[in-house]
């Protein structure tokens, strides 16, 4: 988005990651340390974005959390609640905050990141897949309701990416297991950050 000339507001709980991203983008960016699963943090984020740039044209809900691959009955309540908070409630909070701003502006776009698992669940990731199915369903309903306010809502369902979370998707994180997972992806490779970025643009 920054490369296309947009003014960007970044949010993350990880300060170092924010600083690194901000250094790459330059002056047309603002970073806010925030936990998207907390309403007060989301309110602070929306306020900071609006105070800095005077409007919010695009909201990308890209945060995600999953438990390690395991039988569904072994996922404890703490991890189940985290999945719901990060993957679902964060979208609820952000929509409550930015939709009124976008309506007042006369337009806006909300982009939710779901997962290929929303439509093609994997064994051992039941609650994660269910949360991403919720994202797809919520996106469709949001799009219907917000269309009359000239707010477009879409979602992206990327395949697994070869990042730090990949091992969580596997019952055993071995080279053989990774190759087996990759073989189930039609393109024959894991998704890349630029795949998601280009789809969002």
Q: Which descriptors would you attach to this protein?
A:
6 helices; single chain; Rossmann fold; 201 residues; alpha/beta; three-stranded parallel beta sheet; globular; 46% helix
Overall number of structural domains: 1
Task: Give the helix proportion (percent range).
Answer: 40-55%
Determine Rg (CA atoms, Å). 17 Å
Strand content: 5-15%
User: For the residues shown, what is the average pLDDT?
Assistant: 87
Strand order of the largest sheet: 3-4-5
Could you say what the CATH topology is called?
A: Rossmann fold
- H and E string: EHEHEHEHEHH
Keywords: Oxidoreductase
Protein name: 3-ketoacyl-ACP reductase
Family: Belongs to the short-chain dehydrogenases/reductases (SDR) family.
InterPro entries: NAD(P)-bd_dom_sf, SDR_fam
Give the helix/strand layout:
Layout (H helix, E strand, L loop, with lengths): L7 E5 L2 H11 L3 E5 L5 H15 L4 E4 L15 H29 L2 E6 L12 H21 L4 E6 L18 H9 L9 H8 L1
Parallel strand pairs: 1-2, 3-4, 4-5
Tell me briefly what this model is.
The protein is of the alpha/beta class and 201 residues long.
Describe, in plain words, how this protein is organized in 3D.
- The protein is of the alpha/beta class and 201 residues long.
- It has one domain (34-200): Rossmann fold.
- The chain contains 6 helices and 5 strands.
- The strands form 2 sheets. It has a 3-stranded parallel β-sheet with strand order 3-4-5, with helices on both faces.
- Strand 3, helix 3 (77-105) and strand 4 (108-113) form a beta-alpha-beta unit.
- Helix 2 (39-53) packs parallel to helix 3 and helix 3 runs parallel beside helix 4 (126-146).
